[in-house]
Q: What sequence folds into this?
């Protein structure tokens, strides 16, 4: 996965009428898994994106948002294979191994759950995955979080597929 690519998967409750939702807030006990500074950046960017969609932050929201994140090491995509084998008199054998090449690929996954505040049911979910460079500057971190939010919110509300 390229350093600049943000991949997003979404799912939603197909019976939900998303036009009924105009206000939101965040879970009180949200554990984003992000650093405190990245969480503040993400919330600020996310709030602006929601406003651009006509949704308002409210103390009495129609739905609540839970954001959870994690970091993991993705398998390296490039390896060099080395094989040794031999045969003879009905006996055969072989040895093979892959030697990883390239840099470690650290990925960040951020999950956005939208939960109906009255019914307490999940109505929409987005899972984003992107490369993480822990040495990024604050400006670079903000740009990456902006790319995540842009891609996530480009899929909300979902387009009806009847």
A:
């Amino acid at each position: 996965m390229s350093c600049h690519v943000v991949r997003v998967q979404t799912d939603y409750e197909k019976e939900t009428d998303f036009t009924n939702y105009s206000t939101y807030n965040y879970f009180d006990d949200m554990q984003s898994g992000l650093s405190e500074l990245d969480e503040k950046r993400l919330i600020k960017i996310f709030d602006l994106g929601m406003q651009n969609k006509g949704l308002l932050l409210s103390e009495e929201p129609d739905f609540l948002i839970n954001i959870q994140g994690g970091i993991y090491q993705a398998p390296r995509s490039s390896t060099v294979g080395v094989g040794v084998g031999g045969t003879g008199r009905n006996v055969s054998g072989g040895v093979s191994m892959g030697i990883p090449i390239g840099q470690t690929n650290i990925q960040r996954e951020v999950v956005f759950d939208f939960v109906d505040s009255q019914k307490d049911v999940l109505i929409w979910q987005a899972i984003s995955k992107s490369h993480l460079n822990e040495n990024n500057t604050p400006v670079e971190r903000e740009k990456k979080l902006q790319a995540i939010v842009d891609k996530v919110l480009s899929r909300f509300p979902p387009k009806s597929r009847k």
Summary: The chain has one domain: 6-74+104-153.
